[in-house]
Amino acid sequence: MSKPLVSVLIDTYNHERFIEQAIVSVLGQDVPPGEMEVIVVDDGSTDGTAAIVRKFAPRVRYLQKTNGGQASAFNAGIPETHADIVAFLDGDDWWEKGKLSIALAQLAKHPEVGAVGHGWYEFYSGSQPHLVVVPERDYEIQLRSVGEARLFSQLRAFLGTSKITIRRTVLDRILPIPEELVIEADEYIFTLAPAIAPAIILKQPLFHYRFHGGNLFMLQPGDPVKLRRKHDALSALLRTLPAALSQQGVSPEIITTVLEPIWVDVERMKLSLDGGKPWDTFRVEREAYRTAYSKTSLAYRAFKSLVLLSTLLMPPRQFYRARNWYTSKGLRRLRRVLGEPTPAEPVLTERCEIE
What we know:
Elements: E1 6-12, H1 19-27, E2 36-43, H2 49-54, E3 60-65, H3 70-77, E4 85-90, E5 94-95, H4 99-109, E6 115-124, E7 130-135, E8 139-141, H5 146-155, E9 165-167, H6 168-174, H7 185-196, E10 199-211, H8 224-247, H9 252-274, H10 278-292, E11 293-295, H11 298-311, H12 316-328, H13 335-338, E12 342-343, E13 349-354
Parallel strand pairs: 1-2, 1-4, 2-3, 6-10
Antiparallel strand pairs: 4-9, 5-10, 6-7, 6-9, 7-13, 8-10, 11-12
């Protein structure tokens, strides 16, 4: 095979129920076989994943390794790619037809752009309605100012695994990924990418994000093991990203802005798991409120003042159990009565039910 136009890297772990659909969605893209290589990195699966992937040889190259997490899978797989552009896919997701050609066209049209992301469909195995999640319009982002850093914080989810198509020259400046990131390794990549070159976010939903009980990073109420795993991974991002961003010429002020949402998540998880002082909860929730919105109604400010007061009246674990209950019951929709607050950055994400 001559040098391909694009390399597709699929990371998988115990995805025997899903991996075939993921591979078929890649092989069904409107990119000629001679211009696309497909590599599956198996992070030590103990189910039937290997046998399923091997059915697709020689179109699909299978790399098997001992279990080490997402970062170790990326560190093993990316150096094995041969194309100048790499597209990622999780083994339990699948792409829309045309996803790859759309992303490649953007990179061909904009040679200064380093990465392309996009919207997605959310697919649930139970009775919950499926959703489409897209930004309000196409965006171009780069970490050159505090304002752009805030915009990135609103759009970062559109650059995760299964969404991002990235130039190999950008990846080479990011590697190696810290292997303590057993999950959230994609966040290390997509945070550094716009520090190196602009990234484009497309409004189109171009992949299907599958929610299921085996998701390693999907949090569920009452699951301290997954919560601890995510806490540890996000804490690792807080430790490793500042130096990596600084090496790419990002200023300390911009770095602080980029990491602020991660810090809030880490502190919330820590207080939920380990407890702390009510003042700690107040400090975290006040910071989250301060950075989230630029404009709020008088009624909403009164409501938020009551929420902040409640942080001082109960232990952190009790507060976050109440917060999770409030979210699980869909009570956030009651905010509409108080007047929806205006986000700090005017990025509206549409979440619509689909058939």
